[in-house]
Amino acid sequence: MSRKRSWAEPYKIKMVEPVFMTTQVEREKFIQEAGYNTFLLRSRDVYIDLLTDSGTSAMSDRQWAGIMMGDEAYAGSENFYHLESTIQDYYGYKFVVPTHQGRGAEHLISQILIKEGDYIPGNMYFTTTRLHQELAGGTFVDVIIDEAHDPDSEYPFKGNVDLNKLETLIKEKGADKIPYVSIATTVNMAGGQPISMKNLREVRALTDKYGIRIVHDMTRVAENAYMIKLLEDGFSELPVADIIKEICSLTDAATMSSKKDALVSIGGFLAINDEEIFAEARNLVVVYEGLHTYGGMAGRDMEALAIGITESVQDDHIRARVGQVHYLGEKLKASGIPIVNPIGTHGIFIDAKKFLPHLTQDMFPAQALAAEIYIDSGVRTMERGIVSAGRNKETGEHNYPNLELVRLTIPRRVYTQAHMDVIAESVEYVYENRNSISGLKMIFEPKYLRFFQARFEKL
């Protein structure tokens, strides 16, 4: 007779970092001084930090050991060659250009491939990706399926591309105006939603028909692969590492922010199969990042990254990582909190429109809600709505996305189940008192990526 067992994290804690709880009066002062922007809080004033999973993971003992084997030679570091071979082994791309983080890789590929007047279709925008495409002269076009914009839809692969939208764009603009299709695994702005292998194969067939490349944003590819293993027919018995390799094989190049899946605090890379593009990228990286064998990273960080990639593709690790996210999501759903469905892979996304129906979108409800959660418990979250969406580059007006979300992003290997319980209790309390929450007015707005530094005051 089979017996069901609870899962537990596949590691034990060897070192701890103390955290401290401030008072509510102190937190009200801190968030006001930060302009009601959680990005502008000091980390020492945060109790549980869910701002991002980027660079906030806990490294393993093996990664810390690797740190001690840093070859800090300016050129030809041994750690680069270890990183290069690891990327080739686990992801399958031929050539590697290291960068300081993911946006460095986005910048390189945008400058190399995009011309003024080009269009770059993708399965929903990401902030830095779209900005680099625009700065290079291109225009991003969202070709994700409609279900991705509906937080109540339970469709399991909301990261899928709408093939009709994509082909219509190709026919309208011409294949020569589309340097590549941008495919993210998983889709952050949709709530950490995966793309299916079936859909990616179909996108590959369509782009082959028109001679268009696919550039893969592989920041959370292991999480996407795990969801394919769970949800898509024919993959349940395959190791996550094999699924990752197939995903990558369907694309031509990839940008990677290693601060997510790959379990390091800094680093990234551009991976490429085309030797001519690689030669240009290797030359351009020297201008913007560093020599082509370090690209803005220290040797020790490249070593930790190589080891982190190896750990990130292991089934036990990714099962526990996604499992913790789903544990929190199910607790919130059970309490009636409106969240994006289905639960994603790297965080829980609260539907601020439904949470705060008395606030219009131009009162920045997600920004206001993130501030209120911090005031209640010291839990730092972040906005993913109208502030993150920025302004229309033609009209200067706010972009009004369908999704107005607060993201509770779970760092990898950092917090326990008890922390998840504390988070849930805080969100539940704020929800019970939601009618007292007022909107915000933006009083400072930077030119680019305003969500990082914008400041607000209460209406």
Write the layout of secondary structure elements.
Layout lengths: L23 H10 L14 E2 L11 H7 L10 H13 L4 E5 L2 H12 L5 E4 L4 H9 L3 E4 L20 H11 L6 E5 L12 H14 L2 E5 L3 H11 L8 H10 L3 E5 L10 E5 L2 H14 L10 H14 L2 H20 L12 E5 H4 L9 H13 L1 E2 L1 E3 L1 H4 L15 E5 L7 H16 L7 E5 L10 E4 L1
Parallel strand pairs: 1-10, 3-4, 5-6, 6-7
Antiparallel strand pairs: 2-8, 7-8, 9-12, 11-12, 13-14
Name the helix and strand elements from N-terminus to C-terminus, one letter apiece. Answer: HEHHEHEHEHEHEHHEEHHHEHHEEHEHEE
Indicate the CATH class of the largest domain.
Answer: Alpha Beta
Estimate the global geometry from the Cα principal axes. Answer: globular
**Mean pLDDT figure:** 97
**Within the CATH hierarchy, at the fold level, what is the topology of the largest domain?**
Aspartate Aminotransferase, domain 2
Radius of gyration over C-alpha positions, nearest whole angstrom: 21 Å
Compute the separation of the termini in Å. 61 Å
Structural class: alpha/beta
The low-confidence parts are: none
Outline the biggest β-sheet: 5 strands, mixed
Strands side by side in the biggest sheet: 2-8-7-6-5
Q: What's the total number of strands?
A: 14
Question: Multimeric state of these chains?
Answer: single chain
Q: In which range does the helix fraction lie?
A: 25-40%
Number of helices: 16
**What share of the residues does DSSP label as strand, in percent?**
5-15%
What is the assigned CATH homologous superfamily of the largest domain? Type I PLP-dependent aspartate aminotransferase-like (Major domain)
Number of domains: 2
CATH architecture of the largest domain: 3-Layer(aba) Sandwich
